[in-house]
Design goal:
Blueprint: E1 2-4, E2 10-17, E3 25-34, E4 45-51, E5 54-60, E6 71-78, E7 86-92, E8 101-111, E9 115-120, E10 127-131, E11 136-145, E12 152-159, E13 164-166, E14 174-179, E15 185-195, E16 206-207, E17 211-216, E18 222-225, E19 229-230, E20 235-240, E21 244-249, E22 253-255, E23 261-262, E24 271-279, E25 282-290, E26 292-293, E27 299-300, E28 304-308, E29 313-314, E30 317-318, E31 322-326, E32 340-341, E33 347-354, E34 359-369, E35 373-375, E36 380-383, E37 388-389, E38 393-395, E39 399-404, E40 418-419, E41 425-433, E42 440-449, E43 457-458, E44 481-485, E45 491-496, E46 505-506, E47 509-510, E48 514-521, E49 529-535
Amino acid sequence: MVVNASNSPGIFYQATITDLCPNTTYEFSAWIINILKNTGIKPNVRFTIENNGVEILQFSTNDILENTGWIKYARTFVTPTNLGVITLKMTNQNPGGGGNDLALDDITFSACGPTLIPSIVGNALTTAQLCEGNSATFHFKTDVSPRIYQNPRYQWQLNTGNGFTDLPNEQTPEINVQFQNAVKGVYQYRLLVGDGNNINSANCRIAGSPLTVTVNPQPIPIAENFGPICVGSTIQLIASGGTSYKWSGPNQFTSTEKNPTIANATKAMEGTYTVQVTANGCTSSATTTVAVLDPVIPIINVQRAIICEGKSVQLAASGGSTYLWRPSKGLSDPQIANPIATPTETTTYTVQVSDGRCSAETEITVNVNKNVMADAGADQTIVTGQSAILNGKVSGDDFTYFWTPSDYLDDPTKLNPIVTPTEDITYTLHASSNLGCNSSIDEVFIKVYPKVIIPNTFTPNGDNVNDSWNIPSITSFPNSIVKVTNRYGQLVYQSTGTFKAWDGKMNGKDLPPAIYYYSIYLNKDFKTYTGWVMLIR
């Protein structure tokens, strides 16, 4: 309570008390503080006690200085034999205005008596814990000193939440309290002490501090798991209902985690797991049963298969109810137990076998041997006496090869032999698989042209000796084009198609002796020949 003093001093607290006992010692007290920080009028409080309006005790605080903190002011007195109505008053004896501000706390009026020190024998505390359903005996005692009362009497009381009530026949400073199959709740025990019959009056006796027994409820534990699980998976245990946990289970498992996990489950880890759940010092247990399912054991028809390119092999798996193969490329159906595999290259297939709850995987590797492919190269043209190199190529896995015929070849077992044929010829490259896969052949044609010899002089003088310009081998080129010009670039002769020898004339008339210039186109395989020819008469 904060008091801002009136300018006129007067009473600021007054209370009346009845049902007291005569010839009994009481105390009237209050805690007071001067709340001013600076100098000013000081609080000065007078305490007055009256019996039926007649003053029987008065005392004063005198001036309370600043910054002295809380001070308890108290007096004891003995109620008179002619006890009536007791009135308590507190009067501010100094005026307000320039100070005199104060605060009060714990205004008390109580019977006086000896000091009571309660204890639980064998326990350093004044509180004790017990778990619901358990049994225990507590020895409570209260030390009473000094011996103030002439005829001290005692009474133990119990409070279970609805106020203190007397315990029958418990009227000594010590008591044994038994709990049988304890019921949860808070139990408070205290000792009352009074002088003679004052023990029967609430306003005339004193009470010790309570001794407390708390019966804590047993925790309600819950234990669960995410099973059933498959071999190799992780067991997840789950608990709740407490503040600390202790698990035990098959395969010598222990853990103090709330929700422990166990990796790589085996059948040895299957069974009942127990968790002890503790809360407020009380422990209960719960169990959960973990089921570890039998593992799926995939069975396959082969671990490795070898096929030739373009061929197929049947894969087969068993041990489950559903199947899934990967990769799916090259499989007739990746979701059946026995797909047909036709990979184009070596492939490892993984199959997942499941029984609807658990699954496992295994692998089959299909090695693909490439078929042999022969390539004899592009057709070629040469002139008689020339050589060519055959551009043979062979692809595939593990093969042998050779050329036929062997005529004019330097080595028919070489992939790129040198050939020197004298006439048109076709060579065949044979390639065979040593792995039983497809073999192959391919042909190349070598066109052999005769050597073209171009004369550079002729004498058309009618002596039947070298009278015409003739190119004997040009007959092998039916689409040839031969042109002859004079030194001025004038065309004097031309032969298209089958070559006709030139007789040295132009339009039926003899040309004069001179040097003439020719261009000869044989076909696309030859460059155009150019040069000169001398006509002599």
